[in-house]
Write a structure and sequence with these properties.
single chain; about 90 residues; alpha+beta; two-stranded antiparallel ribbon; 4 strands; about 45% helix
């Protein structure tokens, strides 16, 4: 491998990565967040984490994934009820 340049777009795993994009990685994989979307993604991320934690809890209690991930209307309503109960008990 030879270093050619700095701050230029590259392709990695079939994905274009531009200067100032953010790469987030964990044990499950990696994602590239375009720089223009970082603020929006960061604002939405905590709610997504709460939803996925609730889904994992449901699965651990025996629920099956169809209709749960992604949540259908019934499970969205169940999740919203769960969040309301948590907020009410604070």
């Amino acid at each position: 491998m030879t270093f050619v340049n700095w701050q230029e777009p590259v392709g990695c795993g079939g994905v274009a990565v531009y200067p100032d994009d953010i790469i987030v990685a964990d044990d499950d994989g990696a994602v590239v967040i375009p720089a223009a979307l970082v603020d929006e993604i960061a604002a939405d991320a905590p709610e997504q984490e709460r939803l996925e934690a609730w889904i994992m809890g449901e699965v651990e209690n025996g629920a099956s994934l169809p209709g749960l991930y992604p949540p259908d209307q019934r499970n969205k309503a169940r999740y919203q009820s769960h969040i309301k109960n948590i907020n009410k008990n604070k």
